[in-house]
Specification:
157 residues; elongated; Alpha-Beta Plaits; alpha+beta; two-stranded antiparallel sheet
Length: 157
């Protein structure tokens, strides 16, 4: 991934602060600082990636298996950002995605569509420039395979 300078994005007109969007001197929206956490960018990237036709899910192999067990813990919440990691700087962000593609879809086309969706959503919602979206296709879901995320009960007792 590209080396980014900080762990969370900041925007505003404070000295040394990055500006995610250009603001005029008379714009009250530009007064102050906004910090965007890594988890926010990861959640946006995950949601936009899942909306692309041909993407079955995020996370592969051990990531999905561990996530499925962890998600069944009563106090736990579903892993909305499973398979997504981000690096957020002051003005830029980079995204890594592990995906499972549905059988029959042309993988290169699906991934290209997903990159467009992720970049568009992250840039539109955060004002950060997405410098790269790295994708690892770890599996293809066949039509007759059971959906791991919809199984009832724990897999391990």
């Amino acid at each position: 991934m590209t080396d980014l300078t900080t762990r969370s994005a900041t925007t505003g007109n404070a000295p040394g602060a990055a500006t995610g969007r250009r603001t005029g001197t008379g714009d009250p929206g530009g007064k102050g600082r906004t910090t965007i956490a890594d988890g926010v960018v990861a959640k946006i990237a995950a949601a936009s990636a899942r909306e692309v036709p041909g993407i079955h899910g995020l996370g592969t192999g051990m990531t999905r298996a561990l996530g499925a067990v962890r998600d069944r813990v009563p106090a736990g919440r579903p892993g909305q950002t499973r398979g997504v990691s981000v690096e957020v700087g002051e003005r830029q962000t980079a995204v890594d995605l592990d995906v499972v593609v549905e059988y029959g879809y042309p993988i290169t086309d699906v991934i290209a569509d997903m990159r467009v969706a992720v970049i568009g959503a992250v840039e539109r919602m955060t004002g950060l420039e997405v410098v790269e979206v790295n994708v690892a296709v770890g599996d293809v879901r066949l039509p007759d395979e059971p959906d791991e995320e919809s199984q009832d009960g724990p897999r391990v007792t």
